[in-house]
Write a structure and sequence with these properties.
This protein is α+β, with helices and mostly antiparallel strands and about 325 residues long. It has six helices and 15 strands. The protein starts with a helix and ends in a 6-residue tail after the last helix.
Length: about 325
């Protein structure tokens, strides 16, 4: 009997996994042929100070170190691990850009726009979700954070399973920003920080009400590149001489001589080369059905370190088949 039950569960799960891709709106499930997620990065130039950057910014850029700023956020992964796979959905995208320091006296953190597109039956392409995040500078001009653009927010279809009458989701957006710079003639890929934007009570294919502004955590500015070249370094050496009067036994005159010594084949700063600021952005969006997550107790069947189907099937077998006696 137990063997039949195991086979039945495994068959049902495999059929669900191999079925046509589904999305959901306020009327129930819809079948889609395919989907893709696009991440757009648009520069937003923000004025710092006429002719130069503020002292606070210079100090911050000079002290950024990858080991100190690597604050990876694992909240999204833990959330998926502790909740049922059926009622969560995740999509992600990456992109890169340059020009954070494109103009003197300005910085240009990117406007981040995540757009998930689906292809429904009849080869009709539609926007399933769109999230736009606008950068804002801190008062001391050393960091920026993201603010949700509520006016352009859209969630027409969800990946997480919902039912009519229970079409609300909680969304978590994880933003990871990395920079590529040159220091001591070596490339350095620095993870500036990972931050979260939490968007609760999102109504799928409906009007989501935002009663207050939604922000992310702070992200420091990327370090600037320091360019060097092989050249000559000159040092000036001064020598002071004096002459004494033999009759008065006093110093009567002074003379100064200078000589210049040069060293070749040394690294010297490369002049008139500005750092444009190269950076990369990774975004992960997690949808969660808060109504069903509390009702379903499938945590024991989920292993975030393995493929979902394999982990679930293995857990079912281990839970139902008694271990042999030693």
């Amino acid at each position: 009997m137990k063997t039949i039950y195991i086979i039945a569960l495994a068959t049902i799960f495999c059929l669900e996994s191999s079925a046509q891709i589904k999305n959901y709106d306020n009327s129930g499930s819809i079948k889609i042929i395919g989907e893709k997620t696009i991440l757009r990065l648009t520069k937003k130039e923000i004025y710092l100070k006429k002719g130069q950057q503020s002292p606070g910014l210079l100090a911050a850029v000079g002290t950024i170190a990858p080991a100190l700023i690597g604050l990876g956020v694992k909240t999204v992964q833990e959330k998926i691990k502790n909740e049922a796979l059926k009622y969560t959905g995740t999509y992600k995208a990456s992109n890169s850009a340059e020009g954070f320091y494109s103009n003197p006296g300005y910085v240009a953190p990117p406007i981040v726009q995540i757009e998930r597109m689906v292809l429904t039956s009849g080869n009709k392409q539609d926007i399933a979700a769109k999230i736009t995040l606008i950068p804002e500078l801190s008062e001391d001009k050393t960091a920026f954070r993201y603010k949700l653009d509520t006016g352009s927010f859209l969630c027409r279809y969800s990946i997480a399973k919902i039912k009519p009458g229970y079409n609300f989701l909680d969304l978590t957006v994880e933003i990871k920003v990395k920079s590529l710079s040159i220091a001591a003639s070596e490339y350095k890929l620095s993870e500036l920080r990972s931050v979260l934007v939490t968007i609760p009570m999102v109504q799928v294919n409906g009007a989501t009400k935002f009663e207050q502004d939604i922000f992310s955590g702070w992200i420091p500015f990327p370090p600037k590149s320091i360019f060097e070249t092989i050249g000559a370094k000159s040092d000036t050496v001064s020598k002071v001489t004096q002459s004494d009067n033999l009759l008065t036994k006093k110093t009567s005159a002074h003379s100064a001589e200078s000589s210049i010594t040069s060293s070749y084949g040394v690294k010297v700063p490369l002049a008139n080369v500005k750092s444009f600021g190269l950076y990369e952005v990774d975004v992960v969006v997690t949808e969660t059905n808060p109504f069903k997550i509390k009702a379903e107790q499938r945590t024991a069947f989920v292993d975030s370190t393995a493929e979902s189907a394999t982990a679930l099937l293995k857990a079912i077998v281990e839970a139902l088949v008694p271990k042999p006696k030693e």
